[in-house]
Structures are given as C-alpha cells and as structure tokens.
Amino acid sequence: MNRTRYKIALLVGGSVLGTLLLMLAVFNFEINRSMDARAAEAIHVAQLEEIEAAEEDEEEQTEAAEDDEAVEEDDEDEETTLYTPVIIDIDDNERPDWHERGEVYRKERQIVGWFKRHGLTGVQRVKIGVNTYYLSVIQQGEGWTQLAYVDVTGEPEMIWRINLFVLFAAAVIGLFGTVEGYFIGKRLEQNQLAQKQFFENTSHELKTPLTSIRGYAEGIQTGVITDTRRTGRAIAAQTEKMSRLVEEILCMAKIESGALPLRREPVDVDEFIENCLMPFEGAVASRGLKVSLSLNGGTVQADPEQLEHAVTNLMTNAVKFAAERIEIASDGGAIRIWNDCEPISEEELKHLFDRFYTGRNGNTGIGLAIARDIVRLHGGSVRAEYEGGGLAITLRGLGG
C-alpha cells in the first residue's frame, strides 16, 4: 500500500507529459504538412504563370497587352497563396540571371550550386547553409533551366522555438502533475489505512459485547449462573450496545454514499435542545451532574431527526466524560455544549472527530464523527476547544 503514492504520481505525471508530447507531435506533423502544401501550391502557380508568360511573348505587343489585362482579370478570381516564389533562370552557356549584389545574389548562387550538385525531383524541401527553401524546376529545355524557390527560413526556426517552449511547459506541468499525483496517492493511502483501522475497530467493538453475551449464555447453559434475571439485564445491555453500534455504522455508510436525505423544516432551537436533553435526565441524576442552560431563542432550517442524532451524540459524550458540570447554550443558529474534564492536548482535539480514535483513556467510538458529518450535511461546521477547564463543542452555520 505504501507504493500507491508513487504509482499514482508516475501515472498522473506520465499521462500529462505523454498527452502534451502527443499534442506537440500532432502539431509538428500538421504544421509541416501545411507548410509543404502551401509551398507546393505557390510554386505550381508560379510555374503556370511562367508558361503563360512565355506563350504571350511570342505574340505581338498589342495583343500581349490585351492578354495581360485578361490575365489580370483572371488573377482577381484566383486564390492567392501565402508564399511568393522567386524565379531563377539558368543558362548553361551564360551566367545565371540573378541579381548582382546583396543577399539575394548570395542565396541564388547557393541555390544554383546546390541544384547543379544534387538535382531536383518535384518540389523538395532543402536546407542550404542556415536557410531552408522549397525548390522545384518549373521549366527546362536544351541548355537552360528555370527554378523557383520559396524561402521559409523563419518558419522552421519559429516552430523549433515553439517546440522548446512546449517541451519546457510539458516538463513543468508533468512535474506538477507528478507532485499532485503523489499527494493524491498519499491521501488514498491514508483513506485505505483509515478504512482498515475502521473495520478492525468495528470488529473489536462488536466482538466485545458478543463475547460477553456468549459468556452469559454458556454460564446459563452449564448451570454456573443461576440468577437469570440479573443475567438477562446484562445480556440486554450488551445487546443494546451492539445495536447502537450497528445503527451508527449504518448511518455513517448512508452519509458516505449520499443516501441520507435531509428533510429541512423550521426548528425552534430552544425547544429542540430541551427535547434532546430529556432522555439524559436519569444519567445526569445518577451521576450527580449539574446542567445549566442558556437558551436565547432562534430558528434554524434543518432535518429535526438527523440534527437530533448529531446533538444527542454530542450530549452523550458530554454526560459520559463530565466531572461535575455541563453547560448548554444557544444563540441563534449556534449551539454550544460544554463539560468540565481533564485537560485535553491539541493532538487529541485534532483527532476528536476521527472514527474510532483512541484517546489516552482508551475510549473509542464513531458518535462524534457522525455528529460532525451530519452538521456538515446541513452546511454547518463543528469546532472543539478546551477552554474554562473543560471541552466545548460548538455547532455553527446550520442556517436560519
């Protein structure tokens, strides 16, 4: 189980990184395919124009002018291309018809030199020096050749920069994904451990009354126990304890599965607290506890049955651990239950609402955990503090 966090970290980080790299590969394939297609289209258009221009040169000047106007009219209907090809005329017996000065001269000289060494088949993408070109022969005759080239040097460089940026972003996002996956796995491990402890503690809590009941039954069966009335009361008490635990477990299961609907209605807080306290009058009297009430009215929108379950669990805890006094107060939507007790550490307060948390006195249970969950279902919160020599549990935000 302790490897779960690493497995999920690798799964999340690897999935994020793999997805980004796949997207980058698709982007590179598509952008290069598009660049190839646009360059080939531009060179093809230039080839058609050069052939048409050569045919027009054979006609008379006036007719050529009229044809030029017609061509211009036709061009208006043609789809324009993103690239503008440059034409190079190469005569085997003369110097190529390139510009005599500047960068253009240098590029064209390099292109012609490359062509004479390697030749061309169709439209090719070649890298000459630091530049990238699309080259193609558009016309060729005896002793002469006409080339067209498109300079796309800036685009591969831009694509490379985009690749570097995306790779860096993928590494960073993959790292964050790995870290997040690690913490998700850690929380999952904690949940698995909590579930394991939950079942272990539940088994223990159920085993105790069952063992007691079994012992009484064997005593009666063997004749060792003759006071059946007293034994019956003990068995009934253990059965009731086990029944309450089963009900609490079922309630918690409903809360976790979302199968615990709330039927909200206006609840008078003062009357509600008095009704919840009534079943504890016998226990309070038998232990000689002093209970003080400070009820200031107020109404909340809540499910009376579920809220009673939560508040009753809190009162049960107060009655069970109170030394001498219990104080219950309400102020609008807030309910505060206090009981005097020995000092409680911050660590114990932190885990007070955990299921089956074993405190220093060895007591375990899920009553407080269920109370917290029910209050949260109502949109409220529960806070436990050690103040004034006792434990104060306050419910807030139940709604007005």
Written description of the protein model:
By secondary structure, the protein is α+β, with helices and mostly antiparallel strands. The chain folds into two domains: 156 residues, no CATH class; 132 residues, 2-Layer Sandwich (Heat Shock Protein 90), CATH 3.30.565.10. It contains ten helices and eleven strands. The strands form three sheets. Strands 6-8-9-11-10 form a five-stranded mixed sheet. A four-stranded antiparallel sheet has the order 1-4-3-2. A hairpin with a 2-residue loop joins strand 2 and strand 3.
Which residues form runs of ≥5 with pLDDT under 50? 70-79
**Largest sheet entry:** 5 strands, mixed
What strand order characterises the main sheet?
A: 6-8-9-11-10
Category from helices, strands and their pairing: alpha+beta
Mean pLDDT: 81
Supply the number of helical segments: 10
What is the terminal-to-terminal distance? 45 Å
Dominant shape:
rod-shaped
- Written as H for each helix and E for each strand, in order along the chain, the element string is HHEHEEEHHEHHEEHEEHHEE
Strand segment tally: 11
* Count of spatially separate domains: 2
How much of the sequence is in beta strands? 15-25%
Q: What Rg do the Cα atoms give?
A: 43 Å
Helicity range of the residues?
A: 55-70%
List keywords for this structure.
five-stranded mixed beta sheet, 2 domains, 400 residues, four-stranded antiparallel beta sheet, Heat Shock Protein 90, alpha+beta, 59% helix
Tell me the layout of helices and strands.
Layout: H1 4-57, H2 61-77, E1 86-91, H3 102-118, E2 124-128, E3 131-141, E4 144-151, H4 154-222, H5 228-257, E5 265-268, H6 269-277, H7 281-287, E6 290-295, E7 299-302, H8 304-321, E8 325-331, E9 334-340, H9 346-350, H10 367-377, E10 381-387, E11 390-396
Parallel strand pairs: 6-8
Antiparallel strand pairs: 1-4, 2-3, 3-4, 5-7, 8-9, 9-11, 10-11
Helix pairs in contact: 1-4, 4-5, 5-10, 6-8, 8-10
